[in-house]
């Protein structure tokens, strides 16, 4: 049995990236693992355009929290196993405050395994994602906690671990996405490329047609070379980092309040 923490910057980030693995660990594994979900924000600004301004902020955060709980119930994960860090959607910075906050949480939970968004070699260079992964890597690398959990990044361009699933399991993702009704405008677009992505991820996994991909991080000096990607991955990372990624649109009054708070 292991305690496993899945970190997500926003309440819907795990569905495409880790949905099948979470479901297996929480409902099918014979080892009765303890699964925890750590959400850096509540996705307060996850609606497109200024026409939705009246819904953004605390109101949307409450809705997205309920959507998250609904999705996790499919995995049999209780709301009591979810921790919110209280950061603002779009304002997750790699700084001492974030490091201290995550360090405290990890010292309390002491997980054996951590899954987090890719901090560097990712096609999705959203700062909330990158800074979350970067903070967790920094904490373990610099031994700010007195134990050594295994760390895996999801959403990576440099996978070294894959979790296979069957074609009939696509219904699981459909069910999870339906729980996130406020985000369906975005998730439905991402779904168009999902099948291609997981099919390609399984090409190096014998016996499986579809797979989720992850990158395990190595911290011992003798294994450091395993963290270095080939030139093509570095090139793709540079290209993706130059793209104009989606950025939340903040109501003027709420933006003023956030800037005052931080």
Describe this structure in words.
The protein has a single domain (3-261), classed as 3-Layer(aba) Sandwich (Rossmann fold). By secondary structure, it is α/β, with parallel strands linked by helices. α2 (58-75) runs antiparallel to α5 (170-179). It contains eight helices and seven strands. It has a seven-stranded mixed sheet with strand order 3-2-1-4-5-7-6, sandwiched between helices. The model has no long low-confidence stretch (mean pLDDT 94).
What is the strand arrangement across the widest sheet?
A: 3-2-1-4-5-7-6
Name the beta content range: 15-25%
Instruction: Determine and state the CATH class.
Output: Alpha Beta
Which oligomeric form is depicted? single chain
Quick one: how many beta strands? 7
CATH architecture: 3-Layer(aba) Sandwich
Rg calc = 18 Å
The arrangement of helices and strands along the chain is: EHEHEHEHEEHHEHH
- Into how many domains do the coordinates divide? 1
Short description, anyone?
This protein has 262 residues and is α/β, with parallel strands linked by helices.
């Amino acid at each position: 049995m292991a305690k496993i923490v899945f970190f997500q910057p926003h309440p819907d980030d795990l569905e495409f990236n880790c949905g099948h693995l979470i479901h297996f660990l929480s409902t099918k594994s014979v080892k009765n693992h303890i699964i925890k979900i750590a959400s850096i924000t509540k996705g307060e600004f996850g609606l497109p355009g200024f026409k939705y301004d009246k819904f953004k902020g605390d109101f949307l955060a409450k809705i997205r929290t309920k959507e998250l709980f609904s999705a996790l119930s499919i995995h049999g994960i209780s709301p009591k196993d979810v921790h919110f860090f209280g950061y603002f959607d779009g304002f997750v910075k790699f700084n001492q405050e974030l490091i201290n906050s995550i360090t405290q949480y990890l010292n309390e939970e002491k997980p054996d395994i951590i899954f987090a968004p890719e901090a560097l070699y990712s096609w999705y260079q959203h700062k909330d994602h990158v800074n979350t992964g970067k903070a967790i890597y920094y904490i373990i690398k610099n031994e700010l906690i007195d134990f050594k959990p295994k760390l895996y990044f999801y959403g990576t361009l440099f996978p070294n671990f894959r979790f296979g699933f069957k074609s009939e399991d696509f219904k699981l993702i459909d069910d999870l996405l339906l729980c996130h009704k406020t985000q369906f405008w975005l998730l439905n677009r991402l779904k168009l490329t999902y099948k291609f992505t997981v099919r390609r991820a399984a090409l190096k996994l014998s016996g499986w047609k579809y797979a989720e991909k992850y990158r395990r991080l190595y911290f011992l000096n003798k294994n450091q070379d395993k963290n270095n990607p080939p030139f093509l991955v570095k090139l793709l990372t540079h290209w993706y980092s130059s793209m104009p990624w989606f950025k939340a649109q903040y109501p003027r009054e709420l933006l003023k309040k956030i800037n005052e708070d931080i």
